């Protein structure tokens, strides 16, 4: 008798429990991604190069100079661990392979502006000076150097 009453409860619960419905976002346009990638030009075409250098045997030297009041944390991706550059300090990163990316940010969370200087198209080196960015639209957070030697700030 006890067995019959347990089976009866299980049958009732199975019949009254609502079926799980798959999640469907309110905005589901499967063609949106296809439309976006068809209309947007590649990233390189949307950015303005900040200069160009001539890597020697695929290597470059980049000097980072902190001209701002806050510490800068930077990392040459796949070449260094995160490091700190205090106000007024400078560091020379030599032997970096092109292409390379250097990511950076102000340790206190402020906005950072990077300026490329000491740039000559026939040289394999350049300097990046960090200052505080006056507006969000002027905030930079990475330097991208292509294999060709073209330099971008993002």
Brief description of this entry?
The chain has 154 residues and is of the alpha+beta class. 18% of the residues lie in helices and 36% in strands.
Report the average pLDDT across residues: 83
Helix content: 10-25%
The main sheet comes to: 6 strands, antiparallel
Low-pLDDT ranges: 1-7
Strand content: 35-45%
Strand order of the largest sheet: 1-10-9-6-3-4
Distance between the termini: 74 Å
- How do the SSEs run, as a string of H and E? HHHEEEEEEEEEE
Number of helices: 3
Q: What is the number of E strands?
A: 10
Structural class: alpha+beta
Query: How big is the Rg?
Result: 27 Å
List the defining traits of the structure above.
154 residues, alpha+beta, four-stranded mixed β-sheet, 3 helices, 10 strands, 18% helix, globular
How does this model look, in words?
The chain contains three helices and ten strands. The chain has 154 residues and is α+β, with helices and mostly antiparallel strands. The strands form two sheets. The protein has a six-stranded antiparallel sheet with strand order 1-10-9-6-3-4, with no helix packed on it. Strands 5-2-8-7 form a four-stranded mixed sheet, with no helix packed on it. A hairpin with a 6-residue loop joins strand 3 and strand 4.
Topology overview:
Blueprint: H1 2-16, H2 32-39, H3 43-46, E1 51-52, E2 59-66, E3 72-76, E4 83-85, E5 90-97, E6 100-106, E7 112-117, E8 125-132, E9 142-145, E10 150-153
Parallel strand pairs: 2-8
Antiparallel strand pairs: 1-10, 2-5, 3-4, 3-6, 6-9, 7-8, 9-10
